[in-house]
Amino acid sequence: MSKKWSSEAVRWLDADEERAWRALRRMMIAIQSRTAHDLAAIGLSDPDYEVLSTLSERPGRASTLREQAAKMGWSRSRLSRHASRMEARGLVRREPDPDDGRGCYLVLTEDGLETLEDAAPIHLESVRRHVIDRLSPADLSALENIARKLEEPA
Questions:
Q1: Structural contact between residues 126 and 34, judged by C-beta atoms closer than 8 angstroms
Q2: pLDDT tens track of the chain, all 154 residues?
Q3: φ and ψ of 125, to 5 deg
Q4: Whole-angstrom Cα distance, residue 66 to residue 60?
Q5: Rounded to whole angstroms, what are the CA distances from 51 to 10, 47, 55, 65, 87?
Q6: b/e string for 33-71 if b means 16 or more Cβ within 10 A?
Q7: Which residues form the HTH marR-type domain (predicted)?
């Protein structure tokens, strides 16, 4: 079903808003693709690193599939498929969730932790090279403020 908008109802972007929006989109794509490229060079995807790093910070190095999917903005089924690939590589394992008979925990394995420890310096260098070292302290503060405003749903 298509929703037709009248020209009067659409709040078109003015030239300044259009430039800012396009710049934000280009920035997000550039940073994500550059850091993902650096991780790929060591055999990890961006989502692999996100799962490993998140689990490493959790008590017991574990998180429910539901919590992890929500953090990543993914569906549970998408994360489940991705976790299966990580499980086959020995990076994570699944354990039943005693509070949810249909759910499970993702648990960081020792191999997963070792992989993360090997990858972290490379990832941090990538983040520095592509973002942090290119911005002044004032830029970083402004970026953080903007990010906080945009991370919450409208």
A1: yes
A2: 556 666 678 999 999 999 999 999 999 999 999 999 999 999 999 999 999 999 999 999 999 999 999 999 999 999 999 999 999 999 999 999 888 878 899 999 999 999 999 999 999 999 999 999 999 999 999 999 999 999 888 7
A3: -60, -40
A4: 16
A5: 39, 6, 6, 10, 12
A6: eebbebbeeeebebbbbbbbebbeebeebbbbbbebbee
A7: 17-152
